[in-house]
Structure formats: structure tokens, C-alpha cells
Design brief:
9 helices, 351 residues, 23% strand, 3-stranded antiparallel sheet
């Protein structure tokens, strides 16, 4: 079965890119869903902090664009900005993620090797194309941990991924014990590692998203290594900003979503750029002008610690563990009239 609109049969109700099963019915009511959302977030957050030795910190909702601290994501998304009356109209941007700020904060707050931080990150991505799993409102746990230069390797990356996956397994078991109506465990006991080049080699005629579908349906949970750099085809598996992840040492955690029958990304993470990889990726992406920004200049001068970090979607995890078919069932956002109508037809209540 190939992933894509071609695979959506007449018994499914299409919401933009993703299909809601026509006979879908949430196993939890509205009030119980609210309780379960808190249970998921509380349990996973505590598990993540303990497993990775992280301390919760307060993080900014907005930053000044000239600091270079805002995340450029794929390089095309427009951040939400506003002027500050008290500061003569100076512009501030709502963060798109905290990938860069976290590394700066680790140094400023005096974190040591083997320790790290995490925080709640809330963002507005106004250019997002919304559907059953995408919203213009983003909520995630952003985390970052100090490592040594010698630890900047694939084995370190895999070790951390396995630890995070252990937190996912424990959370799923906990939520099922609280809400047995959710049903059986869906996650496999172990996560499978595959490189983006191995995926392209295995499925050369498929799109990156279709490759993800084939591999995650086979294994249930995968970590795709190496996102941002060009593959043999000349194209990357997906785009990544050049100034936070090392494109050779990063990846995505993707789960098989049984409700929607799709690959379901829950985390983007990786070992962060050092001076050498930053200079190389700025050159490849044609963004060498960023080298003069304060954050990037500090990295090129080797003034910031070596780190590994990422983001883990809060609403995505709630969707997965509570077996929801639409992200609007676990978060409040703004939707198109078409989405609202189609959700009503499918019996889906948007928060």
C-alpha cells in the first residue's frame, strides 16, 4: 500500500492531507479527555526530566530578531512579529522554536556536562497548512543537554533516542492503566534506526513522506537519521535550518499512527552544530550572512557548549496516546470553515 491520497478509499473522510476513518469515535468524552491530556503531559514530562537529567527553566515567548536566536525552521516560514511601544517601535518576534536560545541559556545559567534543561515552548506558525495533525498553534517540550566534543557521534544520538523512546513506552503503559477504554499498546518494544539515504535507496521512486509510511508501518516506530543535507538524488529528505542541528547527526522520531494510518512525527532532535559544521552548512545553504549574528558568531568562536537537544510535540503525544483522530481534539486553535464542517460530519468535537 502506498501512502498518499491514492491510498485513501471511499470509506474514509478526507481532511486536507489526512483521512479520518468514517467510523471513528473517540473512546474518551470531553471532560475525561481534559483529564487525560494532563495525565499524559505530567507523566511524560517527569519521565523525560528524570531520564535525561534535565531541569525545568523559564523560556521566552518572544525575542529580538537581530539576536539570531529565533529558529528559522525550514527557512521560509514567517515569524509572527509585533512592535513595542515603550521601545520606540522596536520589533519582537514570537519564537518558532527555542533550538538556539536553549544552547545560549545552558551557558548563561551555568549548566554542567551531562545536565540539561527543558521548557514549555508555545509558538504561532502562521504559514502552517492545517489539517488533522497540523495546527497554527504549536506546543512542545524543548530540551537541551550539554555533551562533550567526543560525544558528538551517532552512538550518543542513538543512546539518547532510546532513552526518550523508553519514556514514550512508559507513558503509553501508564495512560492505558488509567484509561483502559483506550485499548491495547501500539508501540513496539524497541525503536528502529534507519538513515535517510537508506530510505531513499530502498524506495527510490517514492517521496520522502511515502518512504516514511512504508518504513514505519513495517516497524511501528523509527528514528530517521540525517535530515537537512542532500541525498544521492540531490534533494534532502526534509529541510532543516543550517544553524542548529548537525545534518549528519540529527533525525526525527516517527511512530505509526494506527488511527489515521500515517507516519506520525513526534520529535525532531539532534546533536547541534559546532563551529566547523555550522560554517559548512551556512555555506551549503547560501546563508553565510547569518555568521555575523550574535548567536552564530558565538558558535563560530567556540564560546557555547557542545549540546544535543530537540523538541517533542505535546499535542502530538496526546493525540497518539489518547487515540485521537484530529489535533483539535487535544488543543485549542483556529480552523477553517471547511475543517469545522468536516469534523462535525465525522463526529469530531474540536476544543
Amino acid at each position: 500500500m502506498n501512502y498518499g491520497q491514492e491510498s485513501i478509499q471511499t470509506e474514509r473522510l478526507v481532511l486536507v492531507k489526512y483521512a479520518i476513518p468514517k467510523d471513528y469515535k473517540s473512546s474518551l468524552g470531553l471532560f475525561e479527555t481534559q483529564q487525560a491530556i494532563k495525565a499524559v503531559k505530567d507523566y511524560f514530562e517527569k519521565s523525560l526530566a528524570t531520564t535525561l537529567n534535565l531541569t525545568r527553566v523559564t523560556a521566552p515567548l518572544f525575542v529580538r530578531p537581530e539576536t539570531g536566536l529565533n529558529d528559522n525552521l525550514n527557512g521560509v516560514e514567517r515569524p509572527v512579529s509585533f512592535d513595542i511601544k515603550e521601545q520606540n517601535g522596536a520589533i519582537a518576534e514570537v519564537v518558532q522554536s527555542l533550538a538556539k536560545w536553549k544552547r545560549y541559556a545552558l551557558k548563561k545559567y551555568g549548566f554542567k556536562h551531562g545536565t540539561g534543561l527543558y521548557t514549555d515552548m508555545n509558538a504561532i506558525r502562521r504559514d502552517e497548512e492545517t489539517d488533522a495533525i497540523h495546527s497554527i498553534y504549536v506546543d512542545q517540550w524543548d530540551w537541551e543537554k550539554i555533551i562533550s566534543k567526543e560525544e558528538r557521534n551517532i552512538e550518543t544520538l542513538k543512546t539518547v533516542v532510546r532513552r526518550i523512546y523508553g519514556c514514550l513506552l512508559a507513558t503509553e503503559a501508564h495512560i492505558i492503566s488509567l484509561y483502559p477504554a483506550i485499548g491495547k499498546t501500539m508501540l513496539p518494544n524497541e525503536i528502529t534506526f534507519v538513515t535517510s539515504q537508506e530510505l531513499e535507496d530502498a524506495y527510490p521512486s517514492l517521496t520522502p513522506q511515502q518512504r516514511e509510511y512504508e518504513i514505519v508501518r513495517k516497524y511501528g516506530a523509527v528514528f530517521i537519521i540525517g535530515i537537512g543535507g542532500a541525498l544521492k538524488s540531490g534533494k534532502p529528505h526534509d529541510k532543516r535550518a543550517p544553524d542548529y542541528d548537525d545534518w549528519d547527526l540529527n533525525g526525527d522520531i516517527i511512530l505509526y499512527n494506527h488511527v489515521l494510518d500515517i507516519p506520525f512525527e513526534v520529535s525532531s532532535m539532534g546533536i547541534r552544530v559546532d563551529a566547523e559544521s555550522l560554517a559548512r552548512q551556512l555555506r551549503i545553504s547560501g546563508t553565510e550572512d547569518r555568521a555575523s549574528l550574535p548567536f552564530q558568531a558565538s558558535l563560530l568562536r567556540n564560546e557555547l557548549p557542545y549540546t544535543i537537544g530537540g523538541g517533542i510535540g505535546q499535542s502530538r503525544l496526546c493525540m497518539f496516546f489518547l487515540r485521537k483522530a484530529h489535533i483539535g481534539e487535544v488543543q485549542c486553535s483556529i480552523w477553517t470553515e471547511e475543517t469545522i464542517r468536516e469534523c462535525e460530519k465525522a463526529g469530531i468535537t474540536l476544543l
